[in-house]
Amino acid sequence: MALSRSPTLYQINTRVWLTELSRTLGRRATLDDIPDRELDRLREMGFDWVWLLSVWQTGAASRQVSRSSDVWRKEFEETLPDLREEDIAGSGFAITGYTVHGNLGGDAALARLRERLGKPGLRLMLDFVPNHTGLDHSWVEDHPEYYVPGSELDAAQAPENYTWARRKQGDLLLAHGRDPYFPGWPDTLQLNYGNPATQQAVIGELLKIAGQCDGVRCDMAMLVLPDVFERTWSIPTQPFWPNAIRRVRERVPDFCFMAEVYWDLEWTLQQQGFDYTYDKRLYDRLREGHARPVREHFHARMDYQNGMARFMENHDEPRAAAAFSSEVHRAAAVVTYLSPGLRFFHQGQLEGWRKRVSPHLIRAPLEHPDEALEQFYERLLAAIRQPVVRDGQWQLLECVPAWEGNWTWDCFLAFAWQGPDDHRLLVTVNYAPNQSQCYVRLPFTDLEGGQWRLEDQMEQARYDRDGSDLHAHGLYLDEPDWKARVFSLMRIS
Questions:
Q1: Positive or negative, the Cα torsion across 397, 402, 403, 406?
Q2: Helical pair 196-210 and 241-251, crossing angle rounded to 10 deg
Q3: How far apart, in whole angstroms, are the C-alpha atoms of residue 415 and residue 42?
Q4: Listed residue (427, 443, 400) closest to 335, CA to CA
Q5: Is 359 in contact with 12 (CB distance < 8 Å)?
Q6: Where are the alpha helices (DSSP H) in 138-191?
Q7: Which of 21, 334, 427, 440 sees the fewest Cβ atoms within 10 Å?
């Protein structure tokens, strides 16, 4: 089944989900226990992709680090005041092997779940962590040359970045995985991309994953770019992603690659073969609460826009319901999810959950849904399901002052979607804490000489306008603070 031009993804914390199912079933749940009705429900909501977070094998050594870190434990206790030791299973990104964890049912259970996902038309995305492994990966014993080594001087100068790896063949000082701006992650070991054998081994793991799912979300994908890797480790390396992506697509032509990426390296990774890259820049500008930087972000070329993964929250970011006030949340969501690219939702976002759950934890706190926010997302998802939004043409619209000296025009964002069936959608948002006015220039060439109806899909509101006036002046808006509208535009005479 062909995907839409702007597909929709739902991220699920797999271990947390199965913990909740276990409580219901009265026994340990595996991937086989995920009900078909839940998969059908996700497809009915309009999702194309399900990203199952943290399905891979992890180890005891990394788990012990998670349990013994005072800093992490403080965070865990803020999430779960009744924290138990068994709630801390270790980070799902400290991977010891790309086989499905036995507690989840193993590789066979994943294969059966993937088959069940495919029946309603869902595709499966899984994690791929290129930069590092868990502490007790088999390569530590069998292929220590795959890792970045350390010296006693390195350890003395930056003890947080190195650790003694325990081996039957003799302990070695190895580097923790890290990025160039922060201390190392103490439950990981850094792979050495300056070693061609390491790159080949990692590609082998990626090829294995490609037989188990339809796409991967690549953790901190920019860390293995040659310039970033050399800046971090002073080790020169050859490009990894173009070769790795080519190798996978020789075997699975439509395999999807999504990059977690920051530092304005999105376009770099898109050029190296990624289908989608995180749009953290849009998220940050929406958090700042000013329309103009958001509008300027949408001036980028369309091939870049179509490759962005737009989100309001994920497992790394605060919950949207906690990070945004109620009114701003709704306005930002309309901007985020009615833009082109991949629409990326996180488990609990639609219900308004407020507590972020660390990837080290396998249990979430009990939270009650925000019914008003649930109703908002029901309407928004209905809008996103329309063919015009999934496969139509998007464009940013010009907003102009409603009168001379009217500065509030600068508070607006406006988009248009046009479908092959001539279906039209007009999105307008007053992204500001004040009443604002403007005229929105409409791109439609057939407005003159008719009457047109605008129906707001986010609430029951209908407006009739003269087409000649719309053509000559644009659509006049006078909106309260943070007001978002999604208009269908239809000729009625």
A1: negative
A2: 30
A3: 27
A4: 427
A5: no
A6: 138-142, 152-157
A7: 21
- Residue 4: the pLDDT is 81
Positive or negative torsion for Cα 470, 472, 476, 482: positive
Model confidence pLDDT, tens digit, residues 45-59: 999 999 999 999 999
Please indicate, yes or no, whether the overall pTM of this predicted structure exceeds 0.85.
yes
| CA-based nearest residue to 486, from 260, 335, 343 | 335
User: What is the gyration radius of the CA atoms in the chain, in angstroms?
Assistant: 24
334 touches 484 (CB < 8 A): yes
Among positive and negative, which fits the CA dihedral 183, 187, 193, 194? positive
What does the mean pLDDT of the chain come to?
Answer: 96
60-74 burial: b if 16+ Cβ within 10 Å, else e: ebbbebbbebeebee
Query: What pLDDT, in 10s, does the model give residues 85-142?
Result: 999 999 999 999 999 999 999 999 999 999 999 999 999 999 999 999 999 999 999 9
CA distance 430 to 482: 5
Q: Is the pLDDT of residue 360 over 90?
A: yes
- Structure tokens belonging to residue 74: 């403080």
In angstroms, what CA-CA distances link 196 with 151, 165, 190, 239, 399? 22, 22, 15, 10, 53
Whether the CB-CB separation of 314 and 346 falls below 8 Å is answered with yes
At 288, the amino acid letter reads: E
Percent of the chain with pLDDT over 90: 97
Q: What is the dihedral of CA 104, 105, 109, 110, to 10 degrees?
A: 30
B/e letters for 114-124, b = 16+ CB within 10 Å, e = fewer, are bebbeeeebbb
H or E segment at 429?
Answer: strand 424-430
What pLDDT score does 422 carry?
A: 82
Q: Is the pLDDT of residue 1 over 50?
A: no
**49: its two tokens:** 């992709």
